[in-house]
């Protein structure tokens, strides 16, 4: 069985957790001088347990004293199986109950009850002891768990406990080795000649010697120089294993418990998490809106405020509460991570839950927000990705993983079946966003045509500018390209227009515009100023300018100069007439005589022919081209 599990010893102080751990493994986990002197566990203790197939389990002896509850939570957060240690002569005690609440909130599903110090109770009373303990554990994960009586000092019941452990582990899903490596750090120390070492239980993924890693949230780059699993050098360590990582070139003072060692860029940091939270049944004091709580998540402990969206004070209920925790400092988490919340004063564990969204935003108070969070909570991988993309429109793969809490394997699966659309080989979006953006763009262009029927189309830059505050530029450009590819949009130079659109006179001004065109054509080569035609026809300034650009673009008129427009038909007719008279050379006097033009029109007329490359001037004579 090439699987790796972590087992936690939990229970009240002085109920025999450390002694039992030593009986199972041969290792005394009270390693600190202060622990030896006070005969209580202060820090987390770890020991390897060898299985029948040669695999090693990690056993964590967590502190039982109330004052060391932080260390207890840091240890329990990564475990797969809990051994609840209860002394036969004392039964379930206050810290036993608090440990039970923590185990429940962290959703650890498997447990074993180890009743220690059986020698302290008469043999015929053991069944009564068991009955009393089971009554206390009713409604917990341990209510139907195996029960083992032990005397750790005399090695009684130890083999039965080992067999029970191995049997329980058969049904436990091991941690995800295929994910991106993540190690919440619970111990930092320095070894002379080696430098800084961090320890923790790998939540997912694999780490190998010489891997380039990062410490979050500070995002400090480090390198794994050496790895140890239970004091043995290894080349790699994987999910479920307890590992020590030697990190050169960084001081132990720059790392704290609660930091996370990661391999990829997938993991981000956050100070706002959306959560599903369940409170204990009987709170000493109510939890009010924006109450300050101490949040334990992974190995981190951070202060934060609770934000409700459907109430201003928690009312006793068995229902999970969808809310938000706004933290005083950044942490590294992902969807699905479990956490505990405690009241800082008076000190008590008040609840726990799991992260439904690692990077929350500011939401409005009300049922709409609750419904949105419910969708996020219950959503399938595809629905969660769609939810993230509805909010962000475009995301890189690493951002999708961060927003949704999906594993890389789950995301790859969605990509393989075409559930996401790639944009510019860097981003992804969903079909819903593409469809919505396509509708927005085509509606905008259609509305532009309605408002500006004389214009050939709308400039691409104008479209991008119009959507710059609501839709990412890359998504708009992708949609424009697709619409052109599908034949729904056409392009001329920088202008885009509906495939079926043809510039035309607006119905409200059609007759007046036709009047302007008729008069220009009627005046042939001696037009009046264009402004005068507009005044005579009663056209407003905007419509007159739009008509001018339209007539020029449609090649119905030429600009004789800045004041005059001349019809294309008049130019073509006059050129035909001149060509019959002037076979080679063209002189102003001949043109004037033939066309009857005054100098006012003659010079602009000849310059227009030059500009149209109909003629070419050389000195005072022109030639046909």
UniProtKB/TrEMBL annotation:
<dbReference type="Pfam" id="PF09107">
    <property type="entry name" value="WHD_3rd_SelB"/>
</dbReference>
<dbReference type="InterPro" id="IPR015190">
    <property type="entry name" value="Elong_fac_SelB-wing-hlx_typ-2"/>
</dbReference>
<dbReference type="InterPro" id="IPR005225">
    <property type="entry name" value="Small_GTP-bd"/>
</dbReference>
<dbReference type="InterPro" id="IPR027417">
    <property type="entry name" value="P-loop_NTPase"/>
</dbReference>
<dbReference type="InterPro" id="IPR009001">
    <property type="entry name" value="Transl_elong_EF1A/Init_IF2_C"/>
</dbReference>
<dbReference type="Pfam" id="PF03144">
    <property type="entry name" value="GTP_EFTU_D2"/>
</dbReference>
<dbReference type="GO" id="GO:0003746">
    <property type="term" value="F:translation elongation factor activity"/>
</dbReference>
<dbReference type="InterPro" id="IPR000795">
    <property type="entry name" value="T_Tr_GTP-bd_dom"/>
</dbReference>
<dbReference type="Pfam" id="PF00009">
    <property type="entry name" value="GTP_EFTU"/>
</dbReference>
<dbReference type="InterPro" id="IPR004535">
    <property type="entry name" value="Transl_elong_SelB"/>
</dbReference>
<dbReference type="InterPro" id="IPR004161">
    <property type="entry name" value="EFTu-like_2"/>
</dbReference>
<dbReference type="InterPro" id="IPR057335">
    <property type="entry name" value="Beta-barrel_SelB"/>
</dbReference>
<keyword id="KW-0342">GTP-binding</keyword>
<dbReference type="Pfam" id="PF25461">
    <property type="entry name" value="Beta-barrel_SelB"/>
</dbReference>
<protein>
    <recommendedName>
        <fullName>Selenocysteine-specific elongation factor</fullName>
    </recommendedName>
</protein>
<dbReference type="InterPro" id="IPR009000">
    <property type="entry name" value="Transl_B-barrel_sf"/>
</dbReference>
<keyword id="KW-0648">Protein biosynthesis</keyword>
<keyword id="KW-0963">Cytoplasm</keyword>
<dbReference type="Pfam" id="PF09106">
    <property type="entry name" value="WHD_2nd_SelB"/>
</dbReference>
<dbReference type="InterPro" id="IPR050055">
    <property type="entry name" value="EF-Tu_GTPase"/>
</dbReference>
<dbReference type="InterPro" id="IPR036388">
    <property type="entry name" value="WH-like_DNA-bd_sf"/>
</dbReference>
<dbReference type="InterPro" id="IPR015191">
    <property type="entry name" value="SelB_WHD4"/>
</dbReference>
<dbReference type="InterPro" id="IPR036390">
    <property type="entry name" value="WH_DNA-bd_sf"/>
</dbReference>
<feature type="domain" description="Tr-type G">
    <location>
        <begin position="2"/>
        <end position="174"/>
    </location>
</feature>
<comment type="function">
    <text>Translation factor necessary for the incorporation of selenocysteine into proteins. It probably replaces EF-Tu for the insertion of selenocysteine directed by the UGA codon. SelB binds GTP and GDP.</text>
</comment>
<keyword id="KW-0251">Elongation factor</keyword>
<keyword id="KW-0547">Nucleotide-binding</keyword>
């Amino acid at each position: 069985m090439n699987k790796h599990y972590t087992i936690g010893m939990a229970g009240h102080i002085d109920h025999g957790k450390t002694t039992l751990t030593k009986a199972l493994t041969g290792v005394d986990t009270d390693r600190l001088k202060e622990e030896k002197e006070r005969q209580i566990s202060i820090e987390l203790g770890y020991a390897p347990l060898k299985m029948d197939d040669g695999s090693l389990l990690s056993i964590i002896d967590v502190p039982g004293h109330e004052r060391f509850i932080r260390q207890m939570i840091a240890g329990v957060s990564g475990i797969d199986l809990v051994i609840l240690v209860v002394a036969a002569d004392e039964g379930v005690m206050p810290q036993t109950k608090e440990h039970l609440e923590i185990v429940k909130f962290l959703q650890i599903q498997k447990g074993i009850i180890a009743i220690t110090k059986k020698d302290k109770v008469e043999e015929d009373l053991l069944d009564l002891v068991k009955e009393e303990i089971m009554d206390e554990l009713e409604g917990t994960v341990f209510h139907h768990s195996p029960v083992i009586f032990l005397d750790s000092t005399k090695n009684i019941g130890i083999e039965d406990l080992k067999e029970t452990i191995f049997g329980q582990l058969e049904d436990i899903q091991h941690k995800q080795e295929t994910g991106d490596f993540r190690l919440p750090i619970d111990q930092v120390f320095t070894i002379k000649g080696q430098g800084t070492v961090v320890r923790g239980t790998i939540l997912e993924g694999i780490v190998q010697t010489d891997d380039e890693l990062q410490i979050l949230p500070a995002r400090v780059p480090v390198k794994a120089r050496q790895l140890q699993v239970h004091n043995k050098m290894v080349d790699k360590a994987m999910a479920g294993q307890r590992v020590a990582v030697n990190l050169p070139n960084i001081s132990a003072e720059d790392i704290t418990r609660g930091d996370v060692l990661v391999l990829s860029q997938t993991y981000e940091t956050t100070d706002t998490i959306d959560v599903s939270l369940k409170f204990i049944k009987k709170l000493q004091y109510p939890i009010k809106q924006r109450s300050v709580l101490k949040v334990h998540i992974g190995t981190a402990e951070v202060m934060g405020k609770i934000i409700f969206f459907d109430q201003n004070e928690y009312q006793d209920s068995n229902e999970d509460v969808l809310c938000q925790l706004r933290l005083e400092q950044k942490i590294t988490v992902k969807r699905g991570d479990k956490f505990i919340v405690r009241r800082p004063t008076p000190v008590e564990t008040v609840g726990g839950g799991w992260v439904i969204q690692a990077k929350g935003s500011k939401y409005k108070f009300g049922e709409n927000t609750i419904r949105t969070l419910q969708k996020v909570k219950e959503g399938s991988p595809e629905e969660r990705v769609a939810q993230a993309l509805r909010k962000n429109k475009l995301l890189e793969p690493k951002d999708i993983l961060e927003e949704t809490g999906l594993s890389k394997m789950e995301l790859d699966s969605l990509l393989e079946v075409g559930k996401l659309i790639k944009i510019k080989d860097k981003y992804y979006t969903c079909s819903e966003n593409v469809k919505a953006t396509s509708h927005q763009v085509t509606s905008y262009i259609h509305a532009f045509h309605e408002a500006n029927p004389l214009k050939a189309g709308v400039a691409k830059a104008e479209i991008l500018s119009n959507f710059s505050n609501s839709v990412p530029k890359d998504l708009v450009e992708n949609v424009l390209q697709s619409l052109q590819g599908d034949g729904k949009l056409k392009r001329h130079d920088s202008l885009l227009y509906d495939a079926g659109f043809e510039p035309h006179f607006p119905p409200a001004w059609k007759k007046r515009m036709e009047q302007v065109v008729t008069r220009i054509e009627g005046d042939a080569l001696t037009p009046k100023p264009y402004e005068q035609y507009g005044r005579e026809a009663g056209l407003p300034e905007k419509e007159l300018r739009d008509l001018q650009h339209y007539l020029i673009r449609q090649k119905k008129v030429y600009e004789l100069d800045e004041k005059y427009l001349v019809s294309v038909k008049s130019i073509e007719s006059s050129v035909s007439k001149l060509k019959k008279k002037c076979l080679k050379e063209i002189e102003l006097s001949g043109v004037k005589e033939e066309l009857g033009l005054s100098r006012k029109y003659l010079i602009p007329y000849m310059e227009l022919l030059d500009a149209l490359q109909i003629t070419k001037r050389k000195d005072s004579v022109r030639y046909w081209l």
